[in-house]
Design a protein that fits this description.
The complex is a heterodimer of chains A (199) and B (204). Chain A contains eleven helices and no strands. Chain A has 199 residues and is mainly α. The N terminus of chain B is likely disordered. The chains are: A mainly alpha (199), B alpha+beta (204). Chains A and B meet through helix 3, helix 4, helix 8 and helix 10 of A and helix 1, helix 2, helix 5 and strand 7 of B.
C-alpha cells in the first residue's frame, strides 16, 4: 500500500486530522482548515458585523490555527480551541479597527438609528442589532446560539466563570429581543443596561 | 461540577438569524491556501526559487543551442569568428526580441491589465471606486517593471484579471483583481515586501 493510499484510508475525524497535522501532514491541516473555515468566518462575521473585516479576521484566524495546531494540547476539544482562536482573531480585528477612524460615507447602521416607522413591521438587520450590543454580550450569544457551545465551553473560550457566561447570554438575548422588536421575550429577560457582572 | 449552571436551551430562532452563508468556494480555498503558505515559509520560498532555476536552465540551454547553431552556420559560411559571436536573443512569437534575462515577473504580467497606482486602498469603498474608475478608462500601457509578487500570482489558478498598486494601512501593496464564480470579483491586497495577503475585499 502506498503512502498516498494509506493517507486516503486514514480516518478524517477532527482528532485524527489534528494528530496528522501536528506530525506535519499538510493535507490533513488543509482539510481541517477547509472544514472549519465557514464556522470561523461565521463567528468573525457576527462578532464584527462587516463582511470585509470578517474576511480579514478569518484569514488571521486560519493562520493562527495553522501555526498553533502543533501546540494544541487536547485539554479542550478541538472545536472549542478553534472557536477561541476565531473569537480572539475577531476581537483583535475589532480593536484594531476601533483605533482607526471609520469612513464617514458608510456609517454603521445601528438598531437605535432606525425610525419607528421603519421599525414597525420591518425586518431589522441582525447586524445592526448585534452592533448595538456590548462586545462581551455579543460574543457570548454568538458562541451559544451560533456555535451551540454550552456554558462551560464558552467559559473556557472567554476565560470567565460559567455564571458570568449565563448572565451575558441572558442580557445579550434580551437586548437582541428588544432590538428585533419581540415583545414576548422582553418580559422574561433582565435589563439590557451594562451593569457590573457577577463573578 | 454540580454548582455549574445547567446550559439553557439553544435559542433556535436566534440561531437561525445568526447563521451566515458559507464562504464562496474560491474565497475559502484562497483563505486556506494562504494560511497553509504561512506555516511553510521555507518551502514556499523554495518553490519560486525552483521555478526560477528551471527558467534559468531553459534560458541557458537556448543560449547554448543558439551558440552551437551559430557556430555551425558560421563555419559553413566560411567565417571564423563564430565563437566570438554574441549570444542570440530569444525570439518572441511576434518577432520581437527580448533579453534572455528578462524577469519572470515581466513575462507573467503579460495579458494582465495594469490599473496603475490606486492610491490609499485601506477603505473598501475607496478601493471599489478606484478600481471601477480605472476599469472604465482605456487600458494604459503596462509599467516597464512588473511588481515582484505578480509573477507568483500570475501562475495561480485562476490568475488575476488585473493588478494595481496602492497603500493599505500605510504599507505598500499590490492589488490583484481575482475573478470569482457568479461574475464576482475580489481584490486581494498583497504586501509588496513579503507577497503576503494582507486583506481580501469583495468588489461585488
Amino acid at each position: 500500500m502506498t503512502s498516498r493510499s494509506r493517507a486516503a484510508d486514514a480516518p478524517n475525524t477532527d482528532d485524527a486530522l489534528v494528530t496528522r497535522a501536528r506530525a506535519g501532514d499538510e493535507r490533513a491541516l488543509e482539510t481541517l482548515l477547509d472544514r472549519h473555515a465557514d464556522r470561523i468566518h461565521a463567528i468573525c462575521r457576527r462578532v464584527l458585523g462587516n463582511p470585509d473585516d470578517a474576511l480579514d479576521a478569518t484569514q488571521e484566524a486560519l493562520i493562527a490555527v495553522a501555526r498553533g495546531v502543533s501546540k494544541f494540547d487536547g485539554r479542550s476539544t478541538f472545536t472549542t480551541w478553534l472557536y477561541r482562536v476565531a473569537t480572539n482573531a475577531a476581537l483583535d480585528e475589532g480593536r484594531r479597527l476601533a483605533r482607526r477612524p471609520r469612513p464617514v460615507e458608510t456609517p454603521p447602521e445601528r438598531a437605535g438609528d432606525v425610525s419607528p416607522e421603519d421599525a414597525v413591521g420591518a425586518r431589522i438587520d441582525i447586524d445592526a442589532a448585534l452592533a448595538a450590543l456590548p462586545e462581551e454580550f455579543r460574543v457570548a450569544v454568538v458562541l451559544r446560539d451560533l456555535c451551540d457551545l454550552d456554558y462551560a465551553e464558552i467559559a473556557g473560550v472567554l476565560g470567565v466563570p460559567p455564571g458570568t457566561v449565563r448572565s451575558r447570554i441572558a442580557r445579550g438575548r434580551a437586548a437582541l429581543a428588544d432590538a428585533l422588536g419581540n415583545p414576548d421575550r422582553r418580559e422574561e429577560r433582565p435589563s439590557t443596561q451594562t451593569t457590573p457582572m457577577e463573578p | 461540577m454540580t454548582d455549574e449552571p445547567t446550559p439553557d436551551e439553544r435559542d433556535n430562532e436566534l440561531a437561525s438569524l445568526l447563521e451566515v452563508p458559507p464562504l464562496d468556494g474560491d474565497a475559502r480555498r484562497r483563505l486556506v491556501s494562504r494560511a497553509i503558505d504561512e506555516v511553510r515559509p521555507a518551502s514556499a520560498s523554495r518553490r519560486p526559487a525552483r521555478a526560477l532555476l528551471a527558467v534559468a536552465a531553459v534560458v541557458v540551454a537556448l543560449v547554448l543551442l543558439g551558440v552551437g547553431v551559430y557556430a555551425v552556420v558560421g563555419r559553413g559560411g566560411g567565417t571564423e569568428s563564430a565563437t566570438r559571436a554574441p549570444a542570440p536573443k530569444a525570439a518572441t512569437p511576434g518577432g520581437a526580441t527580448t533579453s534572455p534575462d528578462a524577469s519572470p515577473g515581466a513575462e507573467s504580467a503579460a495579458g494582465i491589465r495594469d490599473l496603475g497606482d490606486l492610491g490609499d486602498v485601506s477603505n473598501p469603498a475607496t478601493l471599489r471606486r478606484a478600481v471601477g474608475a480605472r476599469l472604465d478608462q482605456p487600458p494604459a500601457s503596462a509599467r516597464a517593471a512588473a511588481p515582484a509578487c505578480l509573477a507568483r500570482a500570475a501562475a495561480g489558478d485562476p490568475p488575476p484579471s488585473a493588478y494595481g498598486t496602492g497603500t493599505y494601512r500605510g504599507r505598500p501593496v499590490l492589488v490583484l483583481l481575482m475573478p470569482r464564480s457568479g461574475d464576482h470579483t475580489t481584490a486581494e491586497l498583497l504586501d509588496v515586501g513579503t507577497c503576503r495577503t494582507v486583506s481580501v475585499r469583495d468588489l461585488g
